Amino acid sequence: MTFSLTSLVVDAADLASESSFWHRLLGGTITRTAAHHFLRIDGFLVIVIQHAPGQTPPRWPGGASQQLHVDLATDDAAAADERVRAAGGTRLSPAGASARVYASPAGHPFCVRPA
């Protein structure tokens, strides 16, 4: 018996903003329904953005654990920083940190680390 990871699901009050953000970072194609946006890269389902009208963005750093976050790797931290911010992300970690922490438009934290 084996498992395979099919996707990560994130809540967002604004489906269009959140799916556009991840699409601008990772590429791929978006399929939209009223309650979900599906981001596929190379034919694989990667991120499902689920409509959650009452979604409260996580706080980082904060007193409660984040439960889950995504790590991305890059070979160009400066270009990655520019791309994340241009896509609508917000930098949360201080300048000079080796792993940079950002938040998506819905407030979900993620890290960008050196490859």
TrEMBL record:
<dbReference type="InterPro" id="IPR029068">
    <property type="entry name" value="Glyas_Bleomycin-R_OHBP_Dase"/>
</dbReference>
<dbReference type="Pfam" id="PF18029">
    <property type="entry name" value="Glyoxalase_6"/>
</dbReference>
<protein>
    <recommendedName>
        <fullName>Glyoxalase-like domain-containing protein</fullName>
    </recommendedName>
</protein>
<feature type="domain" description="Glyoxalase-like">
    <location>
        <begin position="8"/>
        <end position="112"/>
    </location>
</feature>
<dbReference type="InterPro" id="IPR041581">
    <property type="entry name" value="Glyoxalase_6"/>
</dbReference>
